[in-house]
Amino acid sequence: MNLNAFEFLDNFALMALAAVLYGIILRLEYPREVRRILGGFMFGAGAAVSMMDPLRVAPGVIVDLRSLFIGFSGAFLGPVAMLISLTIGAITRYQIGGIGVVPGIVAMTLAGCSGTLWGHLMRNRSRASLRHLVLLGFMLCAGLLAFLLLPPEIRVKAFKNAVPYAAACYILGALLLGTFVERERFSAMRERRLTNEVNTDPLTGLLNRRGFQRGFDIAQEEIVSENGAAILLVDLDHFKKLNDTHGHDIGDLVLQSVGAILRKAVRQSDLLGRLGGEEFVVYLPNASMADARNIAERIRIGIETSTIASKGKPLPVSASVGGSWSSNAMDLTTGLKLADMELYKAKQAGRNQVHFTPTIKSAA
């Protein structure tokens, strides 16, 4: 066996590529669980590729950086991603064959579990320090205990020659490449946070005007509104008087409570925003006129029956709702204008009401 440290360290280029791909996956506009699954496949592919050019300790016994990939998957993406990468790595190792198959799979499992444990221990920390990454490297070395499952004559040879190289590379890899992965993770988190700050109303957590416009444009492209679509404007009644009487702190509490009521009243596919002051907007894609009216009424009743209180006394909070419905997709500017006209009618009619435009025939 000719162990060449530089040849072994060549695999770090693959880890560096994995770190870059990890950053790209984090920036995808997918749910977090989907991104984690994609990351699990990515790290699993890295583990499989690393086994294509291993160090050969003995016939059927190989040493490579697969455990680093699988350990990183558990450490930075969680147990589901780790199981995905472990499965890919185990299938690849089984196909390679040899007497080292079982120890090899055990080694990956130990490393994956160690990485997942490290991730669990780090769950309350925003960023891993160098000493934390060194600890990760030492924990991944637990996989090297699988060499104990080899026949005695090969086991001694492996512990004498291969284990020191592997341990050094695991620790160095966790330190250097862990830094790259952490940098990508922190950068992606910062970008996502800045994007949220730009597009989100800080008081209610709903989209602001800019974020709502962006979300509306995306929804127009991705959602086929076969049943029609609607825009609702929700405006709190006598909100200025409430603010003047009870103070802005209570006013803010009311706005936050209304934001929560809106979230409960709409469907998962619907879009919520706060346009400013006491005015909220709701976009209902793929909603019939009946659906839109039901949701608007559910919002109105939810606000009217809310249990918002000041100094132990319930506050009389209500809202007027104006809606515009189209038989197909609609233009946001037109929809808002028509909904605003209906909102005005609801106010003029006595407030705490829902008013809708007649059906709009949109061009296909």
UniProtKB/TrEMBL annotation:
Coiled-coil blocks: none
Domain GGDEF: 227-359
Source taxonomy: Bacteria, Pseudomonadati, Pseudomonadota, Alphaproteobacteria, Rhodospirillales
GO molecular function, one term: phosphorelay sensor kinase activity
Superkingdom: Bacteria
A GO-annotated cellular component: plasma membrane
Reactions mediated catalytically: 2 GTP = 3',3'-c-di-GMP + 2 diphosphate
Stated name of the protein: diguanylate cyclase
InterPro entries attached to this UniProt entry: Diguanylate_Cyclase (IPR050469), GGDEF_dom (IPR000160), Nucleotide_cyclase (IPR029787), Rev_trsase/Diguanyl_cyclase (IPR043128), Sig_transdc_His_kinase_LytS_TM (IPR011620)
Localization of this protein: Cell membrane
Assigned EC number: 2.7.7.65
